[in-house]
Amino acid sequence: MLADGPRAVLDGLIAQSCDDYASISRLIGRNPAYIQQYIKRGTPRALNECDRSVIARHFGVDESLLGAPAQTFLATKDVVHIPICDSVASVKTDFFNRKEGFTQSIGFDRSWLINLTSTAPDNLALMRIEGDSMMPTLLNGDLVMVDVVSMVARLEDGIYVVLMNARLQVKRIAVDPSNDQISILSDNILYPAWDGLDRNSIDIVGRVIWFGRSLR
C-alpha cells in the first residue's frame, strides 16, 4: 500500500530526520512496528488525537498535516475587536474613548461578550498589567478588559483603572458606605494604601471586568 495524505507527510518527516518508524512508535508509547504498519499497511486508519499531537510537536508541524480535522472559526461578523491601549503612555482622561492611536486589538466572540457584560463593545478596552503591585491577583503581563461606562452611575468595591501621575494604573478600590470616601489599595502588601480619599479627587477611568494570562 502506497502512503498518501497524512501517511505520506509522516513518512517524509521521518525520512528527513534522524528518526525511524520504531523510534516514533516508542515516542508515542506504541510497539516498535506501530508507525510502519500505519504508513505502509494503513493500520490504524488514522492516528488518534493524543498520538497525533505528540508527533506534531516532535516534528514542529501543524496537526492538520497529520490528519487533524480542520478548525471551524466564527464568521468575522460575530467577532468584536477590542483595542489594546498602552498602559504606560501619558494620556488624557478620554483615552479609552479615542479610536485613533490604537495599533493592536484582540477579537472576542460577540455572544461571549454579551454574557460577560451589558456594556456595548465600544465602551471596552484592553490593557496590560505592568509591575507587581496587584500580585497575587494580577501579574505583570496580564491582559485586563476595562469597562469605562458601568461604573459611572454607581461606584462599587472592585478593581479599577485609575489615572495617576499621567499613567494608567490598576488598583483595588474600596468604598466607605457611610460617606463618599474611598480607599485605593494594592493587593501586594508591600505597596502603600491611600485611605479617606474623596471620590471626585480620583480620576477613575473604568472597571476591570476580565483578565487573561499567558502560561509560561
Number of continuous helical runs: 5
CATH class of the largest domain reads Mainly Beta
The overall average pLDDT, rounded, is 84
* Tally of distinct domains: 2
Shape: elongated
Q: What is the percent of helical residues?
A: 10-25%
CATH superfamily of the largest domain: Umud Fragment, subunit A
Which fold name corresponds to the CATH topology of the largest domain?
Umud Fragment, subunit A
Coarse structural class: alpha+beta
Uncertain stretches: 87-93
The count of strands amounts to 9
Helix-strand sequence: HHHHEEHEEEEEEE
CATH architecture title of the largest domain: Ribbon
Which radius of gyration do the C-alpha atoms yield?
A: 26 Å
* Main sheet makeup: 9 strands, mixed
Strand order of the largest sheet: 2-1-3-4-9-5-6-7-8
Cα-to-Cα separation, first versus last residue:
44 Å
Oligomer: single chain
Strand content: 25-35%
What does this structure look like?
- The chain is α+β, with helices and mostly antiparallel strands.
- It has 2 domains: about 5-65, Orthogonal Bundle (434 Repressor (Amino-terminal Domain)); about 75-210, Ribbon (Umud Fragment, subunit A).
- The protein is about 20% helix and about 25% strand.
- The protein is built from 5 helices and 9 strands; from the N terminus they run ααααββαβββββββ.
- The chain has a 9-stranded mixed β-sheet with strand order 2-1-3-4-9-5-6-7-8.
- The model is unreliable at about 85-95 (pLDDT under 50).
Question: What labels describe this entry?
Answer:
alpha+beta, 27% strand, 216 residues, 434 Repressor (Amino-terminal Domain), Umud Fragment, subunit A, 2 domains, elongated
